[in-house]
Specification:
The chain is mainly α. Helices cover 70% and strands 0% of the residues. The chain folds into three domains: 1-41, no CATH class; 49-206, no CATH class; 316-419. The longest helix has 24 residues, at 161-184.
Length: 419
Amino acid sequence: MKRRIASWENGHSLPDDFYGPLICEALGMTAAQLGLNHLTGQDARLLEARYSPTPEAAFIAVDQLWRADLHGYEPLVLAEPSQPAWSEASLRWLVAPEPGFPAPPRTGAVRVGLADVAVIRSTSTMFAQLDDQFGGEHARHSVIQYLSRDVAPLLTGQYTEAVGRALFATVAEATLLAGWMSYDSCHHGLAQRYFLQALRLAQDGNDRRLAGSILSAMSHQATFLGHFTEAATLARAARMGISGVATPTLMAQFHAMEARALARTGDTRACELALAEASKAMESRNSSDEPEWITYFDEAELAAEAAHCFRDVNSARQAVAHAENAMSGNHVRSDFFATMVLADAHLRAGEPVEACRVALDALDLGEQLRSARCVSYLAEFRQHLAEAGESAAIRDFYEQASDQRLWRATDRVVGQRSR
């Protein structure tokens, strides 16, 4: 029995059908409240990557995700993303009817007002700043804990339609952040599931701009995972789905996401056309007319996306030029990525000395970051550096980099890739 309890506490298993109900009875809590979704017949559904059909289903699904994640349920945390789920979700959102609204809650449900919504928004903003500065792995567990314990009860509370719409959109934005942080931690199946539920909540919050941004996030992840056709389709769906309410910054981002995917397919011309559209949209940008959550996407961010694109189509000189314009000084992780792209571009341009110098700058910049994606960028550079051959500059780089935490973390990644 002690062994079973230890396994439950460590998240390696869940209480079975005999012990589970006893635990629920002893603690006076339901199986769902304890994250024991398998006892309510929801375990298989929890692991499905699906777009919820109703608001009520979305509330249940996202609450179960938060609870299972908080309890470290390994089948979920280690789940793989579903390739068909990206296409299904974008199609269902594009053809969705009017936003839904849940049935009246049970008697005694918590009352929710706009002040509660404002608290969620402010708290999410704080977590987003931590994510930006320290990486997704730094405070991801704290975000999930907040959503599970403080936000979930509000979704099934009592509220007017106006408050409800604002609540759904705000929780969608917070769940999008949870998805980004999970993606940055390379929990890709979990991240995808958060993105899917965020998309449904944005639909019911009647916030098409936010929904488009969620599809853009899905596109970003799909490109990172090598699903380039799906990534391009998601970016186009985002653009199509908000055409009536689009802002220049959002359109620029969607075109940039499409360009990122096209670059990885090797379609240089289509990539350059998408980047040109992104630049054109950005020229008419007016921050005061944009949603607050997209104002971070500025000229430096677009330059970073262009640098990725030109690196991936082997236009090293253009990649260098754009990467040099991508350092904002305001976003630590974004600056780390841009710096690593610059280092990789120099390496591809036949400039290993400059590549090593820039990579050391990136390592200094990323010392405070806890991000599996950052480690992935470094591992890719390390692989390219090994292919560049031996030189005094490269040997000196290895010696200096060996003391850096992020560089040491690439040992495991490189080891996995070599198997």
